[in-house]
Amino acid sequence: MPRHAALLRGINVGRHKRIAMADLRALFDEIGLADVRTHLQSGNAVFSSAEATPKALETRIEDAIAGQFGMSVRCLVRSQDEIHAVIEANPLRETATDGSKFMALFLSEAPDPALVAAYDPVAFAPDQVRLGDRVVYQWCPDGLMAAPPVGGFVERHWKVAVTARNWNTVTKLGALLDA
Questions:
Q1: Do 139 and 126 form a contact (C-beta atoms < 8 A)?
Q2: Of 46, 33, 5, 38, the residue nearest 22 (C-alpha)
């Protein structure tokens, strides 16, 4: 059965949108997802599903969270191959040497090329930002708080949802998908 990663946006950040990972795993089981494993407390899960499309899985997960927990949570789903493609395509592997300061900003969909041309986030930090396939790579050598707000910029101007994961999490999800 195909493997997928679910990236839940804004889960367990601050006091809002709190979901215990045991409860999230139970919910995934209830909606027919198999071999569910979570990583950290920030809404990362891997699972198996015969469901063919990530978009259908996103809707199923979002609807289940709304029904069970009464909250609206954006979910982005990537297939095992898509997660591995993000890892393999890393354009900053020689520069970004600390996985806790290197971010993958996952996009809900491919942005309009005209919007990408008009609002290029690489201009924020030409040596630290690169575009990929439904992902923006951002190296934050001075820490996340000192980094340009690429995620918000992209979300506002490209009209897509963004959820970010540090590189340590991305590579761990890749390993969990293979387990």
A1: no
A2: 38
- Please name the residue that has the structure tokens 């599903």: 49
- For 96-100, the CB contacts below 8 A with 24+ separation are 96/137, 96/139, 96/167, 98/141, 99/166, 99/167, 99/168, 99/171, 100/166, 100/167, 100/168
Q: Using one digit for the tens of pLDDT, what is the confidence trace for 109-155? A: 999 999 999 999 999 899 999 999 999 999 999 999 999 999 999 99
Mean pLDDT for 25-30 is: 96
Residue 40 DSSP code: T
Residue with tokens 């569910």: 36
Contact residues for 160 (Cβ-Cβ < 8 A; gap 6+)? 107, 108, 109, 111, 154
Q: 172 phi and psi, to 5 degrees?
A: -65, -40
Q: Where are the alpha helices (DSSP H) in the chain?
A: 21-30, 54-69, 80-88, 113-118, 150-158, 167-178
Average pLDDT, the chain: 94
* Dihedral sign, Cα of residue 110, residue 25, residue 65, residue 47: positive
Q: How far apart are CA 71 and CA 156, in angstroms?
A: 23
